[in-house]
Amino acid sequence: MSSWSIVHRVRYPPFDDKRLNANAAPIFEDEIASNLSDDEVVNVLPPYTIQSSEGWLIERTIVNKDGETYDGMTEFRTDSQPFVKLVKQQRRGWYILPNKLHGIARRMVNAAVILLLSTLVYLFLEPLLSSLGIPSVGTKSLQIGLLDYPILSIIVVPILMLPIVLRLIANFVDLKRQQDFFRAPIEQPVVEFDHPIVSGKPLSGHIKLPSELPDWKSISCHWQVGTLPPSREALIELSNTTEGSQPPVGLSTPLPHHWEASLDDGTAGGEDSPIERKDIQGGVFLRPMRFSAEGGSSRIEDDGTFSISPPNQSWPGTVNSPLHRIHWEFILKIKRNKQMPLLWVCPVHVQFPDSIVHLEDLEINDPRTEQFFIGER
After folding, report:
1. Are the CB atoms for 250 and 12 separated by under 8 Å?
2. Is residue 333 within 8 Å of residue 221, measured between CB atoms?
3. Of 47, 334, 50, 38, which Cα lies nearest the Cα of 211?
4. Structural contact between residues 232 and 265, judged by C-beta atoms closer than 8 angstroms
5. How far apart, in whole angstroms, are the C-alpha atoms of residue 105 and residue 374?
6. Sheet architecture: strand order including 4-11
7. How distant, in Å, are the alpha carbons of 139, 153, 156 from that of 142?
8. Which of 59, 55, 60 has its CA nearest to residue 13?
9. What dihedral do alpha carbons 246, 268, 326, 27 form, nearest 10°?
10. pLDDT per position as a tens digit, 279-304
């Protein structure tokens, strides 16, 4: 008779994962159960692997003392643990989408900086070019106040400032939208799902919608699955460090939170979201999940029923552990006239499929909320 252990391994992508070689980052490993008999191992969640082409990894394995892995299906399919605090605070209820100007401004920054550096290099080399007989462009001076400035710099500096101005405008617009939305709160829909809810199978149910407002244009729903960041406390504990010491690779130093501590992975540095109202617990923008997949979409029938097709690939069911957080959610999307859509989010407990899940070469999503226009594609 074998003695089995359950091991969770994770190398989760930090906020700016493109600056870090995944294979150089440590893999955090936690043995969550040990000394399981052959009879006991069939009553635990099955193994799975979620991995990107760069090497970011979320893996659950069942191994014995000889290093042999358990690759068979288990009878137990549902994680009975309650949703983690991150879900309760940041992925439940009403949300709005940030202004698209945030994404436009961010894309403009790189071009503006390249233009500025190119201009400075050109102004530095211009005397040498003039001595070689090459005519200069934009180097004549223009007096502003008591100082003279090259005409070329007068053109370039406003271009460099444009992304900053756009971000300021977008933040003011977002704050105004938040104020308008929370001035007249909308009642929560009531949704009932048909059971069982199983990964790889459609999600169906019945929803009772709140009274429609005059600016509502259309209502649809879909569901999605993804991974949430592991607990910061768990990563620090597994790295044998303390909260006040140098954090593990990929984590930032602790950040002040305006609602409650321990609600993110500690990597964003305040960059994951535009300006939000500080009195709204958990924020008003829905954060993207780094690994994720969307199911189909469905209109709401007159009697409130819906049926949504699953994601194309088979994913694990719901997992709520310190290192592994595989999250499924139902999203109601309300398109409005002349305003960004409203999102209503409801977490869903989903059973594991009847086959072992191995997801490889997945794409990593940008963690910024300004890139998250769900259901628009």
Report:
1. yes
2. yes
3. 334
4. yes
5. 20
6. 28-36, 4-11, 57-64, 48-52, 357-362
7. 9, 10, 14
8. 55
9. -30
10. 666 678 888 899 999 999 998 988 89
pTM to 2 decimal places: 0.86
The interaxial angle of helices 101-131 and 151-183, nearest 10 deg, is 170
Cβ of 245: how many Cβ atoms within 10 Å?
A: 11
Q: Which helix (H) or strand (E) holds 162?
A: helix 151-183
Residue 206 token pair: 């019945």
Residue that is written with structure tokens 């460090």 in the block: 241
Q: Is the peptide bond before 185 cis (omega within 30 degrees of 0)?
A: no
**Do 210 and 187 meet the contact criterion of CB atoms below 8 Å apart?**
yes
At residue 111, the 3 state secondary structure works out as helix
CA distance 121 to 158: 18
Boundaries of every domain in the chain: 4-64, 85-98+186-371, 104-178
Q: Distance from first CA to last CA of the chain, Å, rounded?
A: 52
Which of 364, 350, 264, 253 is closest to 311 using CA atoms? 350
Dig out the tokens for 84 from the structure.
């983690």
- pLDDT tens digits for 221-250? 999 999 998 988 888 888 888 777 777 877
- Beta partners for residue 10, in sequence order: 28, 58
